Amino acid sequence: MINARWFQRLLRVTRRLYWACRERILFPRQFLALGHASNPRFALRWRDRWLCWGDATSQTSFDRHYVFHTAWASRVLAESKPALHVDISSSLYFVSNASAFVPMRFYDYRPAQLGLDGLECNQADLTKLHFADESLASLSCMHVVEHVGLARYGDPLDYDGDLKAVAELRRVITPGGQLLFVVPIGGEARIQFNAHRIYTYRQVLGMFPGFDLVEFALIPDDGSPLGLVRHAKEALSDQQRYGCGCFWLRKLAS
Description:
By secondary structure, the protein is an alpha/beta fold. The chain folds into two domains: about 5-50, no CATH class; about 65-250, Vaccinia Virus protein VP39 (Rossmann fold). About 30% of the residues lie in helices and about 25% in strands. The protein has a seven-stranded mixed beta sheet. It has a two-stranded antiparallel sheet with strand order 6-7. The longest helix has about 30 residues, at about 5-35. The radius of gyration is 22 Å and the shape is globular. The relative contact order is 0.11. The model has no long low-confidence stretch (mean pLDDT about 90).
């Protein structure tokens, strides 16, 4: 009996075969048809082809985790209006867009020079941040910590690398300061080597003693129309296998 995982693999292979046949039969015909334009305005050469497979869909597909969690974080910043926001290694799409309305400093293990006004980019090691204790009032680290210590990005292999990173995040936030923290989430804590870790809801909260949960938002893994569920319940989180958990946390006074 074919289980769901094997069925998905079979489906992917079938799609590849379909598009391979489509390239050999349909694409050359379309190319030749374009060559018969009555008023040609572009050079058209077969050697310049850039074949795009699988885009002729009824709906536009997208990465649910990265579209919704960055949308959530942007909304939180629009609501909280920090004077300055610091981000550690989150999506470049997030920092480049949010810096249009919030002054932003972005740090990454592999720095990116974006050259946008309102945005500074520099290098930092999340497990050894150079910031002073309790010096940042608004901080984000989203879809990052789950990778730390798995050597995927050239960082040292360290089973507890994620805990060291979280300890640094806790250290640098001011009392009353906010943290936007995003990781994969589900009903079972596990490592999918060497891609990422998946956490439980309770596991994440347990990593942040001395913090209040302002909001938990969830991106379910079932592709449902729910999309981003703000103020989600723990029970819904526990039903996921590879959901996305968005935690808006605030550090309590010492």
